[in-house]
Every structure is written in C-alpha cells, then in structure tokens.
C-alpha cells in the first residue's frame, strides 16, 4: 500500500512522511489548519501557502513550515506529492501521492460548493481515494449557499425591526470567514469575539478580501453593537460574553442544524444549515469524479458510507482515525479567548 493507516496517522513508507498525523513525526503534510488535522510537535510541516500563517498562529511562529502552491510537485524519496483545492476553508488542500502509476488522494475535509472564499473543490483522478464522511447520511442535503445567506440576512433584518441584536455562532477558522465574506454590509458594523477577530485580522493582513470588523472587549459599550451583527465561536454559548447582548436573538450556523431538535438543544432562536463539509450528494459526487477503484472512508458516518459505496459497485472500507473529534476552535492565548 502506498499509504498506510498507523497509530500516528496516515503514513507513506516509500516517502517516509505522514499526512495530518495525530502524533509528532519527522515530516508532516497538512491538509488544513483545523486542530484535528494540524497538531503540534512534528519537526517539519508542509502545507499550502495560504495555510502557513494559520499554522503559525495555531502552532507557534517557530515551527518549521514550507508552503507550496496548488499543483506544485515535490518529491520525497521517489514519491511525487502535490496539493489540490479542497474548498473546506482558506488554504485547505487534498494531498495527491504518486509512486509509478499508483496514485492515492487524501481529501482531508472538503465541500464541493464554492463558498466564494475557500476555493473550488477539484476532483483529482486516482486509483485510491480517502474521503471524510462527516455528513455521510442521505438526510444531510444542503440548500444552495445563496438561499442560506438570504435567510440569514432576512433574520438579521427581522431582529433589527424587533430591537434585538443578532448573534451568530460559527467556528472561528473557516465558518467565521465564510459568514463575514458573504454578509458584508448587512449591518452598519460587525462585531466579533476575540477568537474570531485574531485570525480574521491575520487574513486581512495577508490580503484576503474580508470586511472590517470590531473586537468586543469588556469595555465595549452596549450602544456600539446595538442593532448590529455579532459573531462568536460555539464555545461562547451560554457564557457571560453572550449575556451582555440582551436583548438578542441567537443563530447557530452548522450542518448539524439539519436534524430536528438540535436547534432547541443549543438554545438557539434560529438554526442555519451551513456546513464547510460536503453533504451526502457532495460526497458521492466527489468520489465518482475521482474515478477511484478503491475508497477508504474516515471520520463521521464512515461505515454507512462505505457500505453504500460497496453495494453500488465501488469497493470501500472504513478506517479509524483521530479526525473529527474537535470543535475546530483555535487554541489561542487566554487573552484572546477570554472576553467576559
């Protein structure tokens, strides 16, 4: 096997490197900067150019990291490696590994709809495809993004008419940038929790077309964010940081909002089905577009998706990994995350 599933991560013996390892290794290729895929302690990191600053933010400025462009090829001990767009978050990539005529692709996390800022997923032809299955059940079926953001804008306008602040919760890396990019100008100002403000400002400094936002601190007067949009991470729910916004309406942005009852369990006023992962149809579309003869399914509903593929003529097998067990929040300093 060109790639093997080990207790440290996905390993290429021929090239002596790991992809998204969950234990420290000598050489790690990283698909994206979420904490379940990019972990501290490896000696050398390789990622897409746009992930370099995000990895340094998460793992420290002193890490040894090399950035490459999409489609650029590098070689480790006779194995050819290239990165290709995954469309998950800014800088997210799939990893193509080739030795001779044998080609494997590890997708990392991905979605097939272009959100305007994370790039367009690119199917990469291969013999073997390793796919995530976060939402690998037929119940998960996303509406077009334009419809979702139209609903969010209307919700914000309704809150303004009712004299309420609008608070949206979404992951600080990926979801927050997607929300901010697609909600430009929805209110006079946009305010944010420090865990969102820090990576947002970093990306703006790197040239990304993201709107200006304002950081909420303990000294921010209530009059500053009245009738405006406020964005926070999921970890801010039911905290003193939230209570300062009364009266407010709470909206949660997540693919899990597809399931009836999740909005109520989150104590949310609105649930917006907005995910940075592929839905059921998107997963099938991606798998078929690769032309893969063998598929390995990881994290999420991997056993269900593997069984479905096998029953429909594509041999598939579930593999256990340590991906997906995270809320994807940045591990920032105490001063960055403590906003109460």
From TrEMBL:
<keyword id="KW-0269">Exonuclease</keyword>
<dbReference type="GO" id="GO:0004527">
    <property type="term" value="F:exonuclease activity"/>
</dbReference>
<keyword id="KW-0378">Hydrolase</keyword>
<dbReference type="InterPro" id="IPR026360">
    <property type="entry name" value="Xnuc_lig_assoc"/>
</dbReference>
<dbReference type="InterPro" id="IPR036866">
    <property type="entry name" value="RibonucZ/Hydroxyglut_hydro"/>
</dbReference>
<keyword id="KW-0540">Nuclease</keyword>
<keyword id="KW-0436">Ligase</keyword>
<dbReference type="GO" id="GO:0016874">
    <property type="term" value="F:ligase activity"/>
</dbReference>
<protein>
    <submittedName>
        <fullName>Ligase-associated DNA damage response exonuclease</fullName>
        <ecNumber>3.1.-.-</ecNumber>
    </submittedName>
</protein>
<dbReference type="InterPro" id="IPR050698">
    <property type="entry name" value="MBL"/>
</dbReference>
